[in-house]
Design brief:
This protein is mainly beta. It has 1 helix and 11 strands; from the N terminus they run E-E-E-H-E-E-E-E-E-E-E-E. 4% of the residues lie in helices and 50% in strands. It is globular and about 45 Å long.
């Protein structure tokens, strides 16, 4: 059973928007509530980098490259997290991963985002 599942990736033109969603039905609520959540991305030939993270208390941090364009949120009742991505650029092209980071880290398999110029 995959505990973390991302969705919402796809192909979009530069300047467009996508919304990524992450469901964590395989993680019990108390673990989810006490965990930090993160969105990461990995472009071909590059390392996996943090895009945005939200702590268990709701504090959000963004990579400099996405500040003002991406918005991350969490819904503790639904055990989900969302990444709203606006003004997408070709350099945003990557596989995007969701992570639930607590005493144990859980990762999804990723969703592809491709931005054409």
């Amino acid at each position: 059973q995959q505990r973390v599942v991302e969705s919402g990736g796809g192909l979009v033109q530069a300047g467009g928007s996508l919304t990524l969603s992450c469901k964590t039905n395989g993680i019990i609520a108390s673990v989810f509530w006490s965990s930090d959540l993160g969105w990461y991305r990995q472009a071909p030939g590059k390392q996996r980098d943090l895009v945005a993270e939200i702590t268990s208390s709701g504090i959000v941090n963004y990579a400099e490259s996405v500040k003002g364009r991406f918005t991350m949120s969490r819904d503790n009742a639904k055990r989900t997290t969302t990444l709203q991505m606006n003004s997408l650029q070709p350099e945003d092209t990557a596989v995007y991963y969701c992570a639930v980071r607590g005493n144990t880290d859980y990762w999804g398999r990723g969703t592809q985002v491709t931005v054409s110029s």
